[in-house]
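WARN retry 2 of 3 for item q-0093 after timeout on previous attempt; input resubmitted unchanged.
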Amino acid sequence: MSRFAVPVLILSIIVLFAHAPAKAQSVAVSKLKQNVEKRLNVQVDSIRKTSYLGLYELYIDGRIFYTDEQMSVLIAGSLIDTQDMRNVTEARLEQLSAIKFSDLPLDQAIKQVRGNGKRLLATFEDPNCGYCKLLARELLKLDDITLYTFLYPLLREDSDRKSRQIWCASNRAKAWNDWMTGGKEPNNKADCDTSAIDRNVAFARRLNINATPTLFFADGARVPGAVPIERIEKKMNALLP
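OK item q-0093 returned
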């Protein structure tokens, strides 16, 4: 036997054992994914083991769930790290659902620029959404912002009509704000090209946007639902160059 044979053999064994845990982990994740998809009849978009209680994180249709390796339980809700009271689920959801801001079809949105317009925000909203109306009133307080509002009729049959009327208004931003903040219903006809509304709906569905309002910040982070104006300002300011 060559004098190099033993060291090479030892090295091979070390490498083999070093890769064994990772391979076992990969097999466990793959088996769990198959089990979840079969039992729940869903597609698991991503799965990973967390550092909490041996739980696995499942990302399914825009939502996060947790389970154990045997899938003996399925947990829906926020996981809070009590060391710093950080909402782990919320932070991960922002990461998993983030997109490039430049990928948004901004030409299909109502654009409003105030002040220097340096702070960017895009929203998907339904004209009959109560939380959207609250958000619209709050956003009027912000300066130095470029706001893109995507009309996304989701809630009622009437939402589609209002969306198309607002899009066809001579001043879309005014028509939107008049309705959302003042209750002044648009009275013009929806007789222009409203295909942007249909493209908004298709785009939102591809991104699994199923709640209004849904916000996108300049870094692509997505935040669904009503968000306090203080949090919006803090996030936008943190992204300024």
